[in-house]
Each structure stands twice: as C-alpha cells, then as structure tokens.
Amino acid sequence: MSHASTTRRDVLKIAGGAASLGAFAALGAGPVRAAAPMLGVSRPSVYRFKLGSFEVTNILDGYVQGNGPHPTYGNNQTPEAVQAYAKSQGLHPTKMEAVYVNTLVNTGKELVLFDAGNAKGRMPTAGKLAELFASAGYKPEQVDVVVITHGHPDHVGGLMDGGKPVYPNARYIFPEVEFDYWKKGDNIPEARKATRDLFMQAAVPFGEKATFLKGEGEVVSGIRSVPAHGHSPGQMAYHIESDGQRLLNWGDVANHYIMSVQQPEWHVAFDQDKDMGVATRKRIFDMVSNDKIPVVGYHMPFPALGFVEKAGASYRWVPASYHFNL
Length: 326
Ligand SMILES: [Zn+2]
Fold this sequence. Notes:
alpha+beta; seven-stranded mixed beta sheet; 8 helices; 16 strands; globular; binds zinc ion
C-alpha cells in the first residue's frame, strides 16, 4: 500500500468513515504531490543588533555535544545531584550541548572582533567563524582589532589557518597576565598542556605587534577591559558603551546559562582557579544585575545576548527579546 493512499484513507476515517468509494475517487483525481523532504536541524548563526551608534554582530562559530552537565558543571557536587537539577530545569540529565559565539563590534571607526573561535577542522561542528563572515556582511580582511578574552583553544584557535593569520590586517590586544602565563609556560596543569601548545602556535606569533591590557584598560574608544580572572589566570571581560547604552561581553565568566548562572558556586571543571571562578561569577553577576547591563556570553545560547536577574539568593539568565530592535 502506498503512503499516499494510506494518508487518504486516514483522512477519510477522520472525516467520519462515511465517504463512499465515489468520493474516494474524486479526492484522488487531483495532481500527485510528493511529501516535502526532511531537511534536518537548521540553526541561526548570525545576529546583529544596535548598541547606541555601534553595531554588534554575534556569529556562531559552532557547537559541540557530549556528556554532561556533570562533571563539567557541578564539579564539586555528586553526579546524581547535578542530574536531578538538570531534569528539574527541563534539561537532559546526562547529555548537553555547548555553543561558541563570537562578537564583532563595528564602532563606526573600527571593526573589533572578540576572540577568534576554534581552529578550522578542530571539530566538524565548529571553526566556522571566518566562513560565516560573508553571511554576516563582512570580510576577515576588514577586522581592525582582534581582542582576546583568554587563551583557551575555543577562543584563540581560529587566529591562524594553515600557519597564516585569518585576520591579516588586524592589530591584536591580549590581557597581559593571560598572555604571559601561557607564553612562559610555568605551572601549567597536565590537562592544559595541549592548551599551552596551541597558544604557542596560534597566539604567541602575534605577541610582537600586540598591545597588552592591565586592569581596566581601554581597548578602543567605548570599549574597556574588566578583570575576570579565575576561569583562566588572566581572563578579561569587556565593557562596551555607545551613546549611554552599555553591554558586557563576559567571555567565559559563566559557561552554562543554567548550571553557572543559577548555581554560581558550583565548580566548573574548566575553571583553572575554581574558587576565584566562583568569586568572579558572583561579582560580575552582581554588577550586571544591579546596573541592568545586558550581556553577551561566549557560551550562552545563541544569539548569546541577555540579562542576568537576581532570583532570591541566586540569579537567572533572561534572553533578550526585542530590546535591541526598537
Ligand atoms: Zn570558552
């Protein structure tokens, strides 16, 4: 029995089962139409909004799926506790997805790229940032400044492709503590040896012509660094302001919109100094919730733009809706 005739019969059944054979023949007289093909998942990968007179474009470098949230999140909790919490929040208890979202700011004078994404080919589902520049309306050659939050592979891997700079006309800005830490290579934990190797290949070659940020330093007019150490030794967040509109790019201060934002004290396996990671999360969450500063976060659900609200003794992530479209 063909699929089409089954479908027709089902339709007739639903209609009450009273249709005569004649009616069946009449229904079948129309043109034969194929079912629309299944297309698989489609994800938005470019999102642009205005911030004062700046334009901010978030681009999805990619995603990765794997086991979790535990032990990456709630590293100091039992697996059962984290699994139960994930379920209570409507999330799968043992599987998760992480996204990588780069932020590009056009100040009108300069095109500033925050972090460079994963190296092309590091995984099949990530390392797409440079390819997506065209659909975002830009060319990699137009980037004037590349600003790095920290030295992990998903943030610096995409600086180079085949030993050549992906953003050939850019100048480079690194947090000084972060750059020195990975370059010197003292006290690198075993689990971060590969991170150090990649940093030497992908980031250190830019050190010659880079500038380095200490504390709260100016990146370009309207963009300043905000120390956010913990996840890595010298991570910086960046405060972006135009015509009185503010935005914080928090890098990896929080890496999961529920596990990190609602449970800031839960340790994160990727935080090099876990206690400092907790303190930084709370300080930054207080800052953005008290001052109602919108946030872009590298691992927040795409388009990775939202707000943090206080929720009792904790916090919650509130995705932006049309706030920036009006
Ligand atoms: Zn990251």
